[in-house]
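Below is the record:
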Amino acid sequence: MKPALVAASLIAVLLASGTCSAANLALTADLGTTGVGLHMSLPLQQSLNARVGFNTLNYSFSSSTNSVNYDYKLKLNTFDALVDYFPGDSGFRLTGGLTYNNNKITAIGKPSASGTFVLNGKTYSTTDAGQIDGKIGFRKIAPYLGIGWGNALQKETGWGFSADAGVLYQGSASTSLTNSGCTAPSTTCNQLNSDLDAENGRLRDKANDLRLYPVLRVGASYRF
């Protein structure tokens, strides 16, 4: 089940069960490094709120390991279950919780201007190697810790401002590299696959830079 559907279902269940009422909740639309998001806040006790919601966005970028350039497509897709603690009467908050983390990255190897790949120190033409495809994923349940500003439930009704800064611990990346369309003799294709395994290690090292994923969000909230 997709995070957006999970969030919508949870909100519907809470409202139907009477755990929260429309007069005792707030919605926040936000934008940041986790994508475009929508979160619902409801009170647990004085100075303590629960916050659930989802974030999603796709975007493309380019980067490289030491030997191969890649075109990447990052698919952001997360569902947050957070607790906000407000230590004073201000809007400052401490936040912790868990995120269902469906963030993933696909990669396509870019040949050099001369139409070659260099894999594990060996050069292959694109005619022989075909296309190189990669996948990068992270742990599904990721802890989140952060700070923020804005208590969406502080006002009786109306608009407010929200900001978050924190870290999502995604853990070590899982990566895979495959090729399709190798037209070289089988011995060359077998060697290509072996060199792809070595390159996959470099890709994993690169992806592990995202082990601690920075979360920066700003948003507008509305209390009903």
Q: What stands out?
A: Residues 3 and 79 are 5 Å apart (CA to CA). The domain at 3-223 is CATH 2.40.160.170 (Porin). DSSP finds three helices and 13 strands in the chain. The two ends are 28 Å apart (CA to CA).
